[in-house]
Amino acid sequence: MGLASYVALRVGWAAVVSFIIVTVTFGLFAAAPNPSIQQAATQAALQGGDPQEAVERQRQLRGLDEPLHVRYLDFVTSIYTLQWGWSDYRSQPVTTALLNAVFYTAQYSVPWTVLTVLLGPLVGVYSAANMYTWRDHVATGFAFFGYAIPNFFFGIILLLIFGVWLEWIPVVYRTEVPTFSLANVRQLVVPVFVLVTGSIGAIMRVSRNESADFQNATFMKTAKAKGVSPLRAYAYHVMRPTLVPLSTTLVGQLLAIFLGSSLLVEVVFGIPGLGRLTFNALVAQDTNLVLGATLFFTFLAVIGNLLEDLAFTALDPRISYDDRQL
Amino acid sequence: MPRGRQTVRQTGGPSITRRQWLSALGVGSAAALAGCSGDDDSEGTGTATSGGGSDGTPSVSGTYDTVTASAFSTLNPLYNTSSGAGTAIGYALDQGYTFDDQGAYFPLLYDLSTTDDGSVWVFDVREGLSFGDPYGGVTASTFVYQIRELHQSDWAATAASSSWRGINVEETGEYQFQAEIPEAQLLWPESYDPLLYPIPTDLVQPYVDEEDAEGLQQDEELLNLSFTGNLGGYTLDKWERGSGTTYSRNGDYYVQNIEAGPDLFSDAPYFEGASISVVEERASRLGALETGEADSAGIPPERFSEFQEKPQVETFRIPQPFNRILSVNMRDNGWNAGPGNLFRFTAFRQGLAAAIDKQGMIRGIFRGLAQPHYTWQPSWSDWYPGDDAIEQFGAGDQYGGDVARGLVEEAISESAFDYRFDGGALVTPEGETVTLDLHHLAGGETFQLIAEFIASELDDALGIEVTVEAIAGTRFQSNYWTAEPQGGTATIAGEEVTWDQPTLTNPGPRSVTAAESWDMSIVYGLNTYPLNPLTNEVFFDGPTAQYNPVGYYPDFDARGVFERAREADSEDALQEPFTELFRNLAAEQPYVMLVFGDDLIGYNPDLVGPTENFFNGWDFPAWYFDA
């Protein structure tokens, strides 16, 4: 099996996975009672009308009187054509709600991810190079502090210090400031700092321990003997092999903590992003929006997995795709 | 900006379509104007330019920025049922009328009058009101069309639909129409039922023709309030979902030309703009108030005295009619401690009320910032019967273990089961200690404190063991508080009573129950309707009242009392039936009444306008910054 057919298979498999998810979702929906129908019945009872009639009417209105396979086809078609329905909780189409939220989430998650990915390994390697010195202890202490302190609590404390006491940053997040402006940097610097300190610890520790293995590797000795500068030696000979195992965990890790951490930080700093959107949709029982957000994250994970696999296949010559299991 | 439409205070949760019942309010949500702001540049908030208007009116300056705890789910005036979004709509669109600081009717879009005993009401629409292009002027037909084709239709299910059932509306002139209501009501305006938003006929007509409720709910112009013309003090610039609303001043606001009202209306409004930002974290809202980013915000009781000390915040205590109550479940899924259901005995509920120290609760939990709640009316209401006329359980000599035990003994003697006291502890016929669960709303610290206080008071006075459990509002509502309407009949005090129109909140007799069993809860507070106590019919006009989740069957002739109140031909004549109503409710404790917590609000000290009474904000257009 060649590379091309492997890639084709892998993409096909991703499509099948997404399809299975959509089907299971539909199954759950078909089995669950529809709140809008109960509401219609209640309304009719209140108005002195006939609840049964109202239920029928509502079922017709929502196409629930169609046979199951027709409803299933409609559902699948609307999912893949991005007709995700109307969000009652936000009074706008689900896709618009998701896009809006992604726009605000991206404004802090992009710098957060970039900084974590850049700084984590750097600090880790630096720590390893200065193993058991005070520098190492400071870096380790910092990592554990950031990892241990709850994000929302740290956020409130920093908001109190820099927002309320020193008044260096605004307390209320404003959506009307331009994306690329100093004002936006000012209102996002603390949330990003909180998130980075929260997520950098794990990556830093992993890279510290990974790179410790390479510190004393023969190629490092050779490099030092040849008079390579320490900076270059670390950057080229330690960082590179360290990043190979890291890069797999990195993507997965960031995806996993994306929703949870961002929810709490969004609540504290009042950022109208994905975390709050999803959480509030759940609380408000806004079915369409919950479904949309869930599908969004699922598709993201499926695509992320796919890209990771494809990148590996293309980049790492040691991985043979002949005996790879899908 | 009138408030008080909502009956129930709860946190989150889906709101039921009947607007007089439910409206989702945020935790500790405060009055219409409570909130915070955020003006990023220090130039913005509250800095008045020097000088004033030529006629002595203040100059227009600054932006009035507030915050709110939860996002708005809709700004469509026809469908909104929440008070938070009501405020956001109110900045840009006036309703028919309001009540001034004395509680007197104040006409905005129309005047209301009745020539007879309150069965025919005449609406006189103000001239000179106009929508934005292309919708033209507001006339009587604007309202008549809206009432007939939307509120009285069987498809639209608008928020106001329940207010217009069975009412005959006739257009009697270009600017006048009348409504004939089935049962005369002298205080009809005070029930908020005749309150309407102006909505352009041409805008809604396509949906009416199609009977398209969904399209009407989702209409962009209604959601973005882009038709408001001269009908509001501000124009909505943008509603950023999940983040809030921003407004700019409307220079040709119609109140500038009206005769009545404060002189300040002549140049109103006095802010260049306004905004409401959604900030879910309370600490952040309070921080914004402190830095001046917010011109107002609600303050929790435990931090009120701290904010009283701050020069950059002016604090207000505003009495309000929403109560804190202990609901006890008299339905078949209540009283899970043993056989029978002691909650059904008036004397037992009195015993519970007598066991809980109201003043202690006010001191300990509310820091003195609340009023005791003895009957279904706050003491500042015109209809409050007076302290001497009613029972006052949980205070003075009506408080304490001896009183409570005496009342419980009385209930036990009426009961078919041999409950008894064993060394000061109430035990079941089998001799087990009586253990009851108490659900409180999760996430609100005050709720938890009240629950724990009640638990310790009931343990001290009656030896009842209380298990305190936190619960999410949505879950409580769907599995405990409401049930599928089933209807049915029951024999009550020898009379056969039929549930003809069962509702989610009164699904039938006591045998019809919610999915989960529960004993006691403090999740919901209700409105006591001090402007028009007749509205309390929804809770108390007999076992079949629309809103009766706890299965309360009045011992007094409740229906007869409401009947007499409806038939009263003058406001003086109303006093007697209302006094009887509140005397009986104080005695029967359908819900064990605890306290009325004050709304605690902090304002920017430069702000002129806020007052410490329930009608605070009625003259919002006249508020200004005095730097």
TrEMBL record, chain A:
Superkingdom of source: Archaea
PROSITE patterns: ABC_TM1 (PS50928)
Domain ABC transmembrane type-1: 102-308
Membrane topology: Multi-pass membrane protein
Localisation: Cell membrane
Record keyword NAD present: no
Keyword Zinc carried by entry: no
InterPro entries: BPD_transp_1_N, MetI-like, MetI-like_sf
Primary localization class, coarse: membrane
Transmembrane stretches, start-end: 12-32, 109-129, 141-165, 185-204, 249-269, 289-307
Keywords: Cell membrane, Membrane, Transmembrane, Transmembrane helix, Transport
UniProt cross-references to CDD domains, sorted A to Z: TM_PBP2
Stated family: Belongs to the binding-protein-dependent transport system permease family.
Protein name as catalogued: ABC transporter permease
Organism: Halobellus litoreus
Automatic annotation (TrEMBL), chain B:
Pfam families: SBP_bac_5
Keywords: Signal, Transport
GO cellular component: periplasmic space
Coiled coil: none
All residue ranges annotated as the Solute-binding protein family domain in the record: 113-483
Superkingdom, taxonomy of origin: Archaea
Signal in keyword set: yes
Protein's UniProt keywords contain Signal: yes
Region feature Disordered, mapped onto this chain: 36-61
InterPro entries on file: Peptide/Ni-bd, SBP_5, SBP_5_dom
Family statement drawn from the similarity comment of this UniProt entry: Belongs to the bacterial solute-binding protein 5 family.
Protein name: ABC transporter substrate-binding protein
Annotated organism of origin: Halobellus litoreus
